[in-house]
Amino acid sequence: MSLADVLLAVPRLSTRDAAPQFAAAGLPVFPCQPGGKRPLTHSGHLDACLDAEAISAWWQRWPQANIGMPTGPRSGIDVVDIDVKRDGTGFAAFHRAVNAGLLDGEIARVRTPSGGMHIYFPATAHAPQRCWQAASAHIDFRGAGGYVVVPPSVAVESNGVAAYRLFSLSAAQTRPIDARALREFVDPRPTPAPRDSSGAPSGELLAHWIGRLREGERNHGLFWAACRLSEVGVRADAIIDVLGPAAARIGLGEREIERTVYSACRHTSGGTGGVSIRSFSPWTHPASDRDMRRMPWGE
Fold first, then answer.
1. According to the model, what pLDDT value does residue 270 have?
2. Which of 35, 225, 188, 221 is nearest to 97 (CA)?
3. Does residue 43 lie in a domain region?
4. Separation of CA 299 from chain center
5. What value, to the nearest 5°, has the Cα angle with vertex 180 and ends 175 and 185?
6. Do 236 and 203 contact (CB within 8 A), yes or no?
7. Do 108 and 144 share a structural domain?
8. Per-residue pLDDT for 174 more than 50?
9. How many structural domains is the chain composed of?
10. pLDDT surpassing 60 at residue 103
11. What is the DSSP letter of 144?
12. Residue of 264, 193, 202, 196 lying closest to 235 (CA atoms)
């Protein structure tokens, strides 16, 4: 039995009956909050398994639990997540990526309760691809270290309860997605820090750049910009004076701005713990496996 077979079989089943179907197909599962995405087990997606007894025990304890499936090498499935939110959707960027040939090789598409889409691709065990989020494009990638909620799970939306449901299966040959190429296409990396005529980072231009950041990019963007100024010797209080007003205009609070700037200054003064600050950007933030469990990679 394949993933496609399971997706065809489970729409009329309860999650309690569907979870063993995924496991029987070699797809590890774990329970999530009924009507939601939060894992119910202590270690979240790290607890996912194929063991029939463990799965039965979980759903005896939580009969209405949604089904979570880890992405990446553990399940052999990577997922592109097209978001639908109040401030926009990822479908425009998705269609551009399709036309560019970056989303060929899918296994299936699953409609999410919000009206978005999960697009399933085969993952490669020898070359795992990490999760990422492109907030401005409203497209996320769930690979190694992430998970998705799968059919027939449900979610509580503003217009009622809606289910994750199979939208389509591909008849074409499947192949892994190049997640890095997709990210560069929908969310190009920032250009080097703006500099003035002397070659030093320009506080004015950095502030202008911060003013264009969107939700999901703001903290990392301020941190990155503060690092650029701190690296050339600008003091924390002066960085706050230069970047603070722009950060406040995009919704960051005064204390949040101060914490972020002082954290950037500590990092650039030698407390990086081996992380290269010059390579840090709002789109590349290192995290340990333990940190990844706490980050919102599950959809």
1. 52
2. 188
3. yes
4. 8
5. 105
6. no
7. yes
8. yes
9. 2
10. yes
11. B
12. 264
Is the pLDDT at 115 greater than 90? The verdict is yes
- Residue 197 confidence class, pLDDT cut points 50, 70, 90: low
Mean pLDDT of 159-172: 91
Question: What is the chain's alpha carbon radius of gyration, rounded to the nearest angstrom?
Answer: 21
State the average pLDDT over residues 11-27.
96
Determine the pLDDT at residue 221.
Answer: 86
Nearest residue to 52 (alpha-carbon basis) of 16, 23, 25: 23
Match 């997709």 to its residue by tokens.
Answer: 182
Asked if residue 237 has pLDDT above 80, the reply is: yes
DSSP codes joined into one string, 267-292:
HHTT--TT--GGG-BTTB----HHHH
> Going by C-beta distance under 8 Å and a sequence separation of 6 or more, which residues neighbour residue 27?
3, 6, 50, 69, 75, 76, 77
Site of tokens 């005064």? 254
- Higher pLDDT among residues 170 and 135, named by residue: 170
Last residue of a domain, one of 187, 219, 250: 187
Strand locations in 234-279 (E): none
Half-sphere exposure of 147 (CA within 13 A, CB side): 30
CATH number at residue 117: 3.30.2250
Closest listed residue to residue 126, CA positions, set 170, 62, 73, 179? 73
> Residue 65 has what pLDDT?
97
Q: What is the mean pLDDT of residues 249-269?
A: 89
Query: Could you write out the DSSP letters of every residue in 79-114?
Result: EEEE-EETTEESHHHHHHHHHTT-STT--EEEE-TT
Beta-ladder partners of 89: 84
